[in-house]
Design goal:
- By secondary structure, the protein is mainly β.
- Helix content is about 15%, strand content about 55%.
- It has one domain: Immunoglobulin-like, CATH 2.60.40.10.
- It contains two helices and nine strands, in the order H-E-E-E-E-E-E-E-E-E-H.
- Strands 1, 2, 3, 4, 5, 6, 7, 8 and 9 form a nine-stranded antiparallel β-sheet that branches.
- Strand 8 (about 100-105) and strand 9 form a beta hairpin.
- It is elongated, with a radius of gyration of 16 Å.
């Protein structure tokens, strides 16, 4: 039983994250606000329930924005589409390297685990996130 639990924890720590949608809501001198949808893929046999998740948009090792994802549940060996919003600062310049990173706390029937995620968007997605023309 312990080996099974550990193997499922190891599987859960390999959750895959993909951007499925990003939409500019508004833009002003303070920055830009976006709607976002991420797909989380659960490779484990565990049902994983998450509360609100905070995430950060990082360009060239500097935080340029942050956002929040709605609570969600990941079924075993399945995926969930999760909506959220984020804000980026207005003084973003052309960035070479963009990533989205966060820490999601999943509640399971016997414990809670925190699993970090990092997603590297494509160049096109990165331009959309930091609204470069």
């Amino acid at each position: 039983m312990i080996i099974f639990g550990y193997s499922q924890y190891a599987s859960a720590s390999q959750i895959e994250v993909n951007i499925t949608q990003s939409e500019l809501l508004n833009e002003d001198e303070k920055g830009s606000n976006y709607n976002i949808e991420l797909q989380f893929v659960n490779p484990s046999l565990l049902i994983l329930t998450s509360g609100t998740t905070e995430f950060f948009v990082i360009a060239d090792d500097q935080m340029i924005g942050k956002g929040q994802l709605e609570p969600f549940t990941l079924q075993p060996l399945d995926s969930s589409y999760v909506k959220g919003t984020f804000h980026t600062d207005s003084d973003n310049e052309e960035s070479q390297s963009v990533k989205i990173t966060g820490l999601t706390k999943y509640d399971m029937f016997f414990t809670s685990i925190e699993i970090p995620f990092v997603y590297y968007p494509t160049e096109e997605q990165a331009r959309e996130f930091i609204h470069q023309g």
